[in-house]
Amino acid sequence: MINRPQRHCWCGNNELKSFSPDYLVCTKCGTLVSQTGLTPEQTLVCEDSKDFYGKEYWLSHQSQDLGFPNIYQRTRLDLSERSLYWLRTLLTYKLPPARVLELGSAHGAFVALMRWAGFDATGLELSPWVVDFAQKTFNIPMLLGRVEDQQLEQQSFDAIVLYDVLEHLPNPLATMQYCFSLLKPDGIFIIQTPNYIENKTYAEMVAKNDKFMEQLMTIEHLYLFSERAVEMFFKHLGCNTLHFKPALFDYDMYFVVSRQPLAQNTVEQISSSLATIPSGRMVQALFDKADEVDQFQKKWLVAEDDRAARLRVIEQQGEENTKLQTQLTQVSDHLQVIEADRTERLQVINQQATQIEQMEQHLQEIIEANHAAYLEVINEQAAQIKQMEQHLQEIEADRAARLQVINEQAAQIEQMGQHLQEIEADRAARLQVINEQAAQIEQMEQQLYNLQIQLLVRILRRLKLLKFQPISSSVLMEE
Questions:
Q1: Helix and strand element counts for the chain (H, E)
Q2: pTM summary value
Q3: Is the pLDDT of residue 6 over 70?
Q4: CA 363 – CA 183 distance, rounded (Å)
C-alpha cells in the first residue's frame, strides 16, 4: 500500500511504501523516511536543558535510552576506537595544514586529533553545553548552531566530515548543498552513516534480530540511506566521485565524496607530513601503536579462527564421543541383557545336563540289568541266523540242482527245436512233393474229364446212327 507521508523523501518523491510502524521506504531511491521524527524546528537547541539535542542528549539519553557510554566516557574511548580510523582516511586524501570542518563533532576528540596532526580543524554542534564542553576538554575551536547559520567563507574548506550526522538532518539535500558551497573545488566529504540494505523487509529484520534494527531510531534518524540512495543523492548535487570504504561497524557505510577525481597520498607522504610538528609525531606514534594493535588483532583473529576451528573439531569429537558413549551405554545394556540371558540359558543347560546325566545313569542301570537277557536273545538270534544260513545253503544247493536240470531241459528243448526244424524242413519238402503230385493228379483228372467228354460225344454220335441200326458192343468199344 502506498501512503502520502507528512515528510517527503529528500529526492522529492511523494509516494512512499510502508516499511515499519514508523518508517516508509521511497519507491524511487530506496531511502527509509521516518514519519514520527523531529521537525526542523525541534532539531534546534533553544533551551539547552529541555530541547532534544541539548545537554541531556549527551548524558541521560546516550546512557539510559540508547545504552551507550555518556560523553565523559566517549572523550577517552572515541580517540582510540574511532578518531584514529577516521584520521587515516582524511590523511589518505588531504595532508596538513588543510582546513577541515566537522559537523556534529560532539565532545571534539576528533577535531583535537586533526589539529594535533597539523590540520586547521573546527567543530560544530547545536548545544551550547556540548560546545563549551568540547572547548574546555580539548581546547579546540567550536561553532554553535546549524552550519547554514554560520558566517563561513565560500570555498574555504578542504574537507568537511560528518560521522553519524547525515541521518539526523531534517533537510539533508539543502544542508549538503550549502556545505558544497564551503568546499574548495577539490574539496572532499568524508561521511559515516547507517547502511540500509535494500530489499530486506522489516519482518525479516525482526525475525533475524538484525543489527540494523538498532538504527531505526524514529525520533532522531530521519533518513536512513541505502548505498544506491547515497549515490543518487550526491549525483544530484553534481558530485560524480564516490568511493565506499570499509566501515568500522557492519551496520554502517563509510565513503568519500568529491566533485573531482580523488588522489591518494602514500604512507611516506603522510609520515613526512606528520613529522613536521611535535604533535604530529605524537599522532604518528599513535598510528604506529595502532598498527601494532591491528597486527596483533589480525594475528589474534587468525589464532581465534584457528582456536574456533580447533574448538569445532573438539566439539565435533565431543559430539562423536557423546554418540560413542551413548552407543557404548546401549551396547553395555545390551551385553547385560545378553549376559542375563546367557546365565539363564546356562542354568537351563546345567539342569538339562543333570537330567541327561541322570538318564544316562538310569540307562546304564537298565543296560546292565538287561545285558544277560540281551546276550541270550543275541545268542538265540545268532543260532537262528546260523540255521537260516544252513537253510540258505541248502536252498542254494537245490537251486543249483534245479538250474542244472533246467539247463539240461533247455539243451533238450534246443535239440527238440533243431529236430522240429528238420521235421519242418522235411514236411515242407513232402508238402512240395504232395503239391506237385496234386498238380499232376489235377492234370490227370482234367485229362480224364476231357476223355470222358470225348467218349460221351462219341457215344452220342453212335446213338444217332443206331436209330436206324443197332450198334454192336464192339463198335462202341472202338468208338
A1: 11, 12
A2: 0.66
A3: no
A4: 124
